[in-house]
Amino acid sequence: MATPGSEASDVLESSTDYSKYGITDVPKFAVTTALGKTKTFAGLYYKEWIFLVISFLNISTAVALTLARLVQVVEDDPKSSDFTFGILLLINAGFCLFYVLHGVLRERVYEIYAFMAAILVVLFYCILEYAVFNPSRRTDIKLGRLIVACVMAPPNIIIAWFVSRDFGYLEFRIVGASQFLQYLYRQAALFSCLLKFDLQATSSLVVLALKDGTSMSVLETVSLAVGLPFSVLWCLLGWVVLRRELKGGAIAFAVIGLVKPGYYLYKVITTYIDIRDGIEPSQTITYSLLAATALGLLVWLMLMWELTVVYKSFGKGLKEHTKDVLATETTGLLSSNRKKWRP
């Protein structure tokens, strides 16, 4: 006996199968993956292609210059704080690459915003690190990195903004024309983006524990060995809770997440004690650590607030629409599990 879901799937397949009309080699603009509906490269607009090219050039140039600087630091001064910031820039470059690809192919507008914010953070760091924090350690590589950041960052941010304004194709195909379901979908996308941004902020904070370059104390080793895996697992837990709409899991996620502000407070206190006791770490490290702590705490607060929003939306139909087939002319926009949600 066929189920309503299988019948709808058959309808969708027949409505998108053009081979019976003698039309073959029709490009697919969207495909269904294990993670959800995703646009293909054939479905990208010219502005999105321009954004991808500019972003890849920007990120690859930053990575190349950072690697060159890391090699130089390892050979000349392994205990320099420049090693720490080199690793930090590489981590943020990796997140930026993810935001670009995932944000465009999944039409995640908040991830494009996160990419824009990450570019600004890196730009300000390059300016301050070269002109204010370490004027005695200026090198040609740092100057080249600063010039590239100042030249390529503004147009990258501008094109990212215009690309994000055109998103909406996947949202409509997933949840249809219902404004209520579109609201739930956008809140879920915001929560998902904050999960990744929180992981980025925490990873940056943990890496900043490397105050002496390649030389690590026992405490710094434990911080890296425990902090990064904990952040990754906590992020994965939040993703599962969101995808499965697990109310019990959401409570566990919030309780476990209380470790993060505790860790942030610990970092601020230890930094203050070091300064009070006359232990003077790199000025760049100190300022960056405090900035990363403030950013991490802000993102955590936003994430907890958004958790309460998506928690209230559990069981109101979004999960069924994201897992079931797309709305078509014959299935109707709200054909599946309509009785399970109410505004």
Short overview:
With 343 residues, the protein is mostly helical.
Beta fraction of the residues? under 5%
How many strands?
A: 2
Strands of the largest sheet, in order across it? 1-2
The mean pLDDT is 77
Biggest sheet details: 2 strands, antiparallel
Compute the number of structural domains: 2
Q: How would you classify the helix and strand content by structural class? A: mainly alpha
Distance from N terminus to C terminus (CA atoms, Å) equals 33 Å
Q: How large is the count of helical segments?
A: 12
- Identify low-pLDDT runs: 1-19, 324-343
Order of helices and strands: HEEHHHHHHHHHHH
Outline: globular
- C-alpha Rg (nearest Å): 23 Å
Helix share, percent: over 70%
Pfam families: DUF7789
Organism: Littorina saxatilis
Keywords: Membrane, Transmembrane, Transmembrane helix
Protein name: DUF7789 domain-containing protein
